[in-house]
Design a protein that fits this description.
Blueprint (H helix, E strand, L loop, with lengths): L1 E2 L11 H10 L1 H4 L25 E3 L18 H12 L1 E7 L16 E4 L10 E7 L8 E6 L4 E6 L4 H8 L4 E11 H8 L3 H20 L13 H8 L6 E13 L28 E2 L1 H12 L22 H10 L12 E2 H19 L8 E7 L2 E2 L4 E6 L5 E5 L3 H5 L14 E7 L1 H34 L2 E5 L4 H8 L7 E9 L8 E5 L5
Helix pairs in contact: 1-12, 3-6, 5-6, 6-9, 6-10, 6-12, 9-12, 10-12
C-alpha cells in the first residue's frame, strides 16, 4: 500500500477534531492531496463481490409478502427486502442533466443504476454483513449481502452471534445482527482525503432509507458505539481499509447475562475470501489512516445500552409500498429547476422529516448532536427572500434579508446546479467540531451519519410530494458559517440541499424498474 503523505504531526486522539476543522476550512486551506488525479479507467466497482463461495439468492417480495406484508416478520425474506430497498438495484435510468458528459445522454451503456439510498458521488461505499445464529431461515454463519444478485454470500459457517454480542456488551440475545461497514477506497479513489467525510454521511443515508420503510421500528437500533477491532476480526476485515460503523440487532430472542470473556472461545480467523478484482492497488490516504488509528484507541461508551434495542417490526404503521416507490423515484435534479416556488408547508414537511430521522438514528447513542438548518429562501410561499435559521423544530428566524443567490452560486464548486432557479437552499448544520473534540472519531462519525440520515429523509419525502432536490458535498462551509454569523464550535455547515421544481422539458427520462411488482 502506498502512503502519499504523512499526517504525522497530528497527535494521537486529535485526528477527528483536526479532520473536522480541515473539512470545514478546505476551500481556504486545501487538503493534503489536492493534486490527486482521478483515474476512471481503474475505478473500483461500486459494490463488493465474493468469488467461490456458497450463495443464497432471495427473490424480491411480491405485494403482501416479506417487508410488504401486513405484519412483516423478522425473517430472512424481510431482512433481505430491507437491504434491497436501501441498497439494491431498484431502477435503470437514462436522464438528461447538467452533471454528465454529452456522450452520456445518447448511449444506453451510460444508464444509471438507481438505488434507494443517496451516496456521495454515487460511490455507494456501504457493505452489509450478516452474523446469523442458529434456528433461522439461513444456516448459522457469516454472510455478505450481494447488491447485484439480492442474496447472501456465505463467508463462514461458524455461529459468531455470541462473540459479537460479547464484543458489544449487549444485554439481549438476537437471532441475527447486521454489521454495516465502509470501504474507504471506493470513495477515496475519487475524493482522496475528502472520502472519510463523504462516507461518514453515506452510512447515515443507509439508515435514512430503512427508516423510510420501517419508521420508528428502527429507532434506537443503530449502534455506532462499536468495538471496531473486535468486529473487524469477526468479519475478517482490515479496519484500516474497511471501517466498522454500525451494528443492528434483528429478531431479539431473550435478555440474558453476558458470559465472562474467558467462557467464550476467541475467534481470530479471517473469514474473508478475495474480493472480485477491478481496481488498481488501493492507496492509503493519511487522513483516513490517522482517523482509523484513533478509532482503535478509543473505548466504546456503552452508557446508552438500556435504550438500545433490536428492530421492532410491530411499530410499522406506514404504507411501506408508497415509501418504497418514493425511494425508487428519488433522483438528483442536476440543473433542472424551473425557477418557480414551493410552498411553506412543503418546506416545513421536509425539515420536520429530517429532524425525525436524525432523532431516530441517535436514539440509541450516549450523545445526541443537535441538527440545525440554514435556509436560503429564493421563492418559498409565505417567506420573503433571505437567509433564515431553523433549529429544534422551532420556527424560522430571519438572519439576513434580501436575495442570496449570488452568494450561493459563489460558494459551491461544480456547475451542475443553478442556485437562482431553486426555490430555496437548505444547509444542514451540526456541532461536528465539538463532537469530534469531545468524543473523538465516534463523535465525528455519529454527527455525519445523523446529517446523512436527515438528508436521505428529506430527499425521499421530496420525491413523494413532487419537490426536486440537488445535494452538494463540495461547497465552502466556512464562508456560509461566516455569512450566517455562526460559531462553528457550536454548529457548522455540513451539507447543502437545493429544493425546487423540476422543469418538465429537462426531465427526459427512460426507466426500467427492478422488483416492479411492488
Amino acid at each position: 500500500m502506498q502512503l502519499l503523505q504523512p499526517w504525522s504531526d497530528v497527535p494521537e486522539k486529535e485526528a477527528a477534531y483536526r479532520y473536522a476543522d480541515l473539512i470545514l476550512n478546505r476551500v481556504r486551506s486545501g487538503l493534503p492531496n489536492d493534486k490527486w488525479e482521478v483515474d476512471w479507467a481503474t475505478a473500483p466497482l461500486v459494490f463488493s463481490a465474493y468469488r467461490d463461495v456458497a450463495f443464497r439468492p432471495v427473490a424480491p417480495s411480491s405485494p403482501g409478502a416479506g417487508l410488504f406484508a401486513p405484519c412483516p416478520q423478522p425473517n430472512l425474506q424481510t431482512l433481505t427486502d430491507v437491504c434491497h430497498v436501501a441498497y439494491g438495484i431498484s431502477s435503470l435510468r437514462l436522464s438528461v442533466n447538467l452533471n454528465d458528459r454529452p456522450e452520456v445522454h445518447s448511449h444506453v451503456s451510460s444508464v444509471k443504476w438507481g438505488r434507494g439510498s443517496a451516496s456521495g458521488g454515487g460511490r455507494y461505499c456501504v457493505d452489509v454483513y450478516l452474523v446469523q445464529g442458529t434456528g433461522g431461515d439461513l444456516a448459522a454463519g457469516l454472510y455478505h449481502y450481494s447488491v447485484i444478485a439480492n442474496g447472501w454470500e456465505q463467508l463462514s459457517s461458524q455461529d459468531c452471534t455470541d462473540e459479537l454480542r460479547r464484543a458489544q456488551g449487549y444485554p439481549f440475545v438476537a437471532g441475527s445482527y447486521l454489521c454495516y461497514t465502509i470501504n474507504y477506497w471506493r470513495s477515496a479513489f475519487k475524493y482522496n482525503d475528502f472520502a472519510y467525510q463523504a462516507t461518514s454521511m453515506d452510512i447515515g443515508t443507509y439508515f435514512g432509507a430503512i427508516h423510510e420503510v420501517l419508521g420508528e421500528g428502527v429507532a434506537a437500533t443503530w449502534d455506532m458505539e462499536v468495538d471496531e477491532t473486535a468486529i473487524a476480526r469477526i468479519l475478517g476485515l482490515n479496519p484500516l481499509h474497511d471501517g466498522i460503523y454500525a451494528v443492528q440487532a434483528w429478531d431479539e430472542v431473550a435478555s440474558e447475562p453476558l458470559l465472562a470473556s474467558s467462557q467464550v472461545a476467541e475467534n481470530a480467523s479471517s473469514h474473508r475470501p478475495p474480493a472480485l478484482p477491478k481496481d488498481r492497488e488501493a492507496v492509503d490516504f493519511p487522513t483516513t489512516q490517522a482517523l482509523q488509528r484513533d478509532m482503535a484507541l478509543e473505548e466504546p461508551d456503552y452508557s446508552a445500552r438500556t435504550s438500545l434495542c433490536a428492530v421492532d417490526l410491530t411499530k410499522v404503521a406506514i404504507n411501506r409500498t408508497e415509501r418504497w416507490r418514493a425511494l425508487t423515484g428519488r433522483e438528483t435534479s442536476f440543473g433542472r429547476f424551473d425557477g418557480t416556488s414551493i410552498s411553506e408547508a412543503e418546506l416545513g414537511i421536509l425539515l420536520a422529516r429530517a429532524h425525525e430521522a436524525a432523532r431516530s438514528l441517535t436514539a440509541g447513542s450516549p450523545y445526541r448532536p443537535a441538527l440545525q438548518f440554514l435556509v436560503y429562501v429564493n421563492k418559498v410561499e409565505g417567506y420573503a427572500p433571505g437567509l433564515y435559521l431553523q433549529k429544534d423544530d422551532s420556527g424560522m428566524q430571519l438572519i439576513d434579508e434580501g436575495d442570496q443567490t449570488q452568494f450561493l452560486e459563489g460558494t459551491f464548486f461544480l456547475h451542475n446546479y443553478i442556485a437562482r432557479l431553486a426555490s430555496c437552499t437548505v444547509i444542514l448544520c451540526s456541532e461536528v467540531t465539538a463532537a469530534a473534540e469531545e468524543h473523538g472519531v465516534r463523535g465525528y462519525r455519529l454527527t455525519n451519519a445523523m446529517v446523512g440520515a436527515a438528508c436521505q429523509s428529506m430527499l425521499t419525502e421530496a420525491s413523494a410530494i413532487g419537490v426536486g432536490t440537488g445535494t452538494v458535498l463540495g461547497f465552502d462551509a466556512a464562508a456560509h458559517a461566516d455569512h450566517a454569523g455562526m460559531d462553528t464550535g457550536e454548529s457548522a455547515p455540513m451539507l447543502m440541499i437545493m429544493l425546487g421544481r423540476d422543469a418538465p422539458s429537462g426531465r427526459v427520462r427512460a426507466e426500467l424498474c427492478a422488483g416492479g411488482s411492488v
